[in-house]
Amino acid sequence: MKKRLLMAGLVLGSMVSVSAFAHGKHVHGEAEMEVALEGNELAIGISGPLANFLGFEHAPKDERQKKALIDMTGDLHEGGRLFELNAEAACSFTSSQVAVRKGDKRVNPIMLQTLGGTEKDGHADMDASYVFSCKKPDALKSITVRLFARFPGLTELDVQMVLPKKQMSAELTPKKPQLSW
Predict the structure, then answer these.
(1) What is the annotated signal peptide range for this record (predicted)?
(2) pLDDT-above-90 percentage for the chain
(3) Domain count of the chain?
(4) Neighbours of 92 (CB within 10 A)
(5) pLDDT at residue 15 is higher than 60
(6) Distance between CA atoms of 10 and 53, rounded to whole angstroms?
(7) Which residues form the domain of 56?
(8) d(Cα 169, Cα 92) in Å, to the nearest integer?
(9) Is the pLDDT of residue 140 over 90?
(10) CA quadruple 101, 158, 177, 35: dihedral positive or negative?
(11) Which helix (H) or strand (E) holds 99?
(12) Who contacts 128 (Cβ-Cβ below 8 Å, separation ≥6)?
């Protein structure tokens, strides 16, 4: 089990890193989602402008922004609430990782102030990864993404998905939050 989780984490980590740097895309409202299913492990990665999730991309300036950062971080760790997998697959949420990235520096979101700079110095991005364990992975046929309801700054997810026998891409929006195959 640990070996599979490590493998899923490595695969997803490389997908998120390659995606974020290869596309060089930082468009407010848009984010990228990578999905990989290997064996019983489903890995999901999300990468996009921090403003989509937090409303700003700089260190918190007041108590309201500090609270927003803490709330966002907590919510992003709740993979079981952010992604609904069809029940037939019998999947359970096992882990999550969340980081803020500015250039090549990555930190826990609560440490955003350590990235330095000001709002005018550039952009910051949010990267999150999730792992689910599925008892019946062949029965997995859909993922409903609940990120749009929690983060109204997010308006579009560009999805790349790798399954054992299929690859696909899709675009999800608040009106079309379900990925089906």
Answers:
(1) 1-22
(2) 67
(3) 1
(4) 11
(5) no
(6) 24
(7) 2-180
(8) 24
(9) yes
(10) negative
(11) strand 91-102
(12) 45, 46, 47, 76, 96, 97, 98, 99
C-alpha R_g of the chain: 16
Alpha carbons 151 and 78: distance in angstroms, whole number: 13
Mean pLDDT, rounded, for 10-19: 45
CA nearest to 128, candidates 60, 57, 73, 56: 73
Q: Tens digit of pLDDT for each residue in 84-99? A: 999 999 999 999 999 9
Question: What does the block give as tokens for 82?
Answer: 């952010």
Query: Which pLDDT does position 6 carry in this prediction?
Result: 44
> d(Cα 63, Cα 69) in Å, to the nearest integer?
10
Query: pTM of the prediction?
Result: 0.83
Output the furthest CA–CA distance in the chain (Å, rounded).
49
**Predicted confidence (pLDDT) per residue in 96-109, tens digit:** 999 998 877 878 88
* Tokens standing for residue 102: 């500015």
